[in-house]
Amino acid sequence: MNREKMVREIVDRVGPFRRLIIVCIHIGAIGCSNYLAFLIRFDGEMPAPMFELFLTTLTWIVMIRFLFITLFGLNQGLWRYAGVGDIFGVLKAVLGSSLVLYLLFSFVLKIQGYPRSIYIIDSLILIVMLSGLRLVKRVLREFRFRTLVKGKRVLLIGAGDAGEMVLRDMKRSADLLYHPVGIVDDDPGKKGLRIHGVSVLGTRKDLSDLVKRYAIEELIICIPSATAKQMRAIVDECSKTGVSIKTVPGTRDILDGRVGFSQIREVQLEDLLAREVIRTDLESIRSNLARKKILVTGAAGSIGSELCRQIAGCSPEEVILLDQCENRLYLTLLELRESFPEVTFNPIVGDVRDRQCVEEVIHLGRPEIIYHAAAYKHVPLMESNPLEAVRNNIIGTMNLASAARDAGVKKFVLISTDKAVNPTSIMGACKRFAERLVQEF
Question: CATH top-level class for 151-272?
């Protein structure tokens, strides 16, 4: 750790002079390659006239080659990310400058006795030197990755372009959060192939065995183009292994520029849905609820209490909590006051079936918005108690809606259920009736 810290300090100090250092390295490489070319041409013993020729032409060689290196942007790239494109740049810069030097020495300056083989030998040496300088950083990082592996042992799913990019990002990571042990892919023909030194170990059918054999701690799905159906199948297979599952962002998010391949995350619900996720405009909701008096019926229930929590986070003036269950209402009130001490909560024990009670609550509280969540929701119980379902879900809704209309309440929101669509139960039919009732007001 101390050694790594020392190296980082040296890099930080050298950083501001990085471009100057690269220029010096390039100039040094140009001079060295030309000198070595002469030595090789004359079997290690350079005659005095040739040494004078070397010194005479060296300035021109450095100037022309450095000009081409600059023109092809070789002074600007980050060597740790060097790839095929950088090597092609080196080839073009060296070969182009060699051609210019040949024309300059032969037809412009008309230098006599300059060996033509020097152009070829010098070019080959310089290409190797400049390419090697760019690749040595990657080699050192690879060596460090192999010798200092300490991250979480992971198995990648998908040996395509996304998998290759994730592997490359992992090996570039200075923190070494992940140690890629292997890859699995649905194509059996890829088994045994290697990507950045990591082997394709098998297909998805081999997942359970591979997780046990290689002590895998995490699976990472690297198939951003997978459909929801394919994603569900992959997640089902991965779930059988008992280890945590993560994925890379979807293709749409990557193309939009919101995220990159390296932003590995948990598998989310939208990854498994065969439709676009509806994004909630939280700011709009917050602005509609801020500084308002809001009544929530059924405030102690599972839905009503969560509504109260969400509303309280939007800075309302007051939240009126109406529920018939004294004990649960008290517990909900304690939780809300502890979580949102800046919000005023007004608890009222009452029943929406009692029209007089509802009218008094609205008259005294003067709510601007009502969320009606009070309802019986258990289907089997309501089948056995149909009259209670009608009294609470229909009569209670009618009492509240009529009182809200008479008091001039601005907004009335009925919390309904999917069972109200083509209802096949007492509870669903009552909620459907309540929807039509509210629409009439």
Answer: alpha beta
